[in-house]
Specification:
Blueprint (H helix, E strand, L loop, with lengths): L1 H6 L1 E3 L3 H9 L7 H18 L1 H16 L3 H4 L2 H38 L17 H8 L2 H27 L1 H5 L6 H41 L2 E2 H12 L2 H22 L5 E4 L4 E6 L9 E7 L1 H12 L4 E3 L1 H10 L11 H20 L29 E2 L1
Parallel strand pairs: 3-6
Antiparallel strand pairs: 1-2, 3-4, 4-5, 6-7
Helix pairs in contact: 3-6, 3-10, 4-6, 4-10, 8-10
């Protein structure tokens, strides 16, 4: 039972899955919304240009239906008349076609947003499989399209009957009316029928849009196993991440160890902690921690310092304070300026003594480390300072 529940698509689609669907050209769509928008835009344009449209169509029909006996039996003349009439009608209706095409292209953006995917144009052989086509015939999507098709056909039929029945007396009176009256009546009937059809399609689109959104996100639902796999891909395999972190720590330790020979002094605990300091006047605002470590790492730092003749100073309070309040690459805290200044002054004097001889400098004692900076101040019994 647990395996069956893992295979059921019960989890909402993640943002990553939705984005991947969009990249594949899979976005929510509603044909009814597109039909409604196209027809509504057409009706609005027809309403705005009704006066000009009526006048233009009346003129075209008058010219097209007005010809003499000789012209009626002249094939070339009739061909020219029909060509002129057709061209005029196309030019008259061209703005409507352009506006409706723009509406047809722009309406999907309202639901699925602006999107272009080359994958939508790729050949999918699975769509050519007749078995897949038969299976889709019984799907919820196919049934909903069938119901909407019947509903739209019924609406168009009812609206057409409604309009014709309402104008039945006017239609019968056209036999004794002029051409202009007939054109005006026809245009009015088309406009009224379109308005009523737009109202009906608005109702259909209002039902179809929420249904399409629900169906779209329902198709993108994920199983619990898919969701776990996606989270693992996003966050990374824990074992791989652990190896990466270990590798990063190793690289950081190598960089740190490479900086020890260039340090000015290594302050020790003497065995638990070791902190290497360096100061370059003009390039550094304050002495900087170039390496630090505890226990085995501290021992390696001390050995490197001895190997490269970097001075070692045993100052437990200062070593503890530096270890706990700094990171590699940090400048020393302002509270430790005085203590470190004494250490750096001693190192300078020591280097001068080793280079030129004379009296050896006196080791610093009782370095001023604030009590709050030394985590071992309350229980330490180690000696305060001592050079090696």
């Amino acid at each position: 039972m647990a395996e069956d529940s893992d295979l059921e698509k019960t989890e909402p689609a993640s943002q990553r899955r939705i984005d991947q669907a969009r990249e594949d050209g899979n976005v929510p769509q509603s044909r009814e919304l597109s039909t409604f928008m196209v027809l509504m835009v057409g009706v609005v344009v027809m309403w705005v240009t009704s006066g000009w449209l009526t006048q233009r169509m009346s003129s075209l029909m008058r010219d097209g239906l007005s010809f003499g006996h000789a012209q009626a039996f002249n094939q070339d003349a009739m061909y020219e008349t029909m060509t002129r009439l057709s061209s005029g009608a196309l030019l008259t209706l061209a703005p409507f076609f352009v506006v409706m095409i723009v509406a047809a292209v722009a309406s999907p953006i309202m639901l699925g947003g602006l999107m272009f995917s080359s994958k939508a144009f790729e050949l999918d052989l699975s769509r050519m499989n007749p078995l897949n086509g038969i299976s889709r015939m019984g799907s919820l999507q196919s049934l909903s399209e069938l119901v909407k098709g019947f509903l739209k056909s019924a609406l168009v039929g009812l609206v057409g009957y409604w309009v014709l029945w309402g104008y039945r007396e006017d239609i019968l009176g056209l036999m004794s009316s002029s051409l202009e009256v007939g054109v005006v009546l026809f245009g009015h009937m088309v406009l009224v029928a379109s308005l009523k059809l737009v109202a009906c399609l608005a109702l259909v689109a209002g039902i179809d849009v929420p249904f399409q959104l629900w169906q779209y996100y329902d198709r993108l639902k994920m199983t619990k196993e898919e969701l776990k796999q996606e989270m693992k891909e996003q966050d990374g395999d824990p074992h791989i991440k652990a190896r990466i972190r270990a590798r990063q720590r190793e690289m950081a330790r190598r960089r740190m160890m490479a900086a020890v020979p260039k340090a000015d002094v290594v302050v020790t605990n003497p065995t638990h902690y070791a902190v290497a300091l360096k100061y370059e006047a003009g390039n550094m605002g304050a002495p900087t921690v170039v390496a630090k470590g505890a226990d085995m790492v501290a021992q390696v730092i001390r050995e490197l310092a001895l190997e490269h003749k970097v001075p070692l100073l045993e100052a437990p309070p200062l070593a503890r304070a530096l270890f706990h309040h700094t990171k590699e690459g940090d400048q020393i805290p302002a509270a430790l300026y005085t203590a470190v200044a004494e250490v750096m002054a001693y190192v300078y004097q020591l280097n001068h003594f080793l280079a030129q001889g004379g009296l050896p400098p006196e080791e610093p004692h009782d370095l001023p480390v604030p009590e709050g900076m030394d985590p071992g101040a309350s229980h330490t019994t180690e000696p305060e300072t001592g050079m090696r």
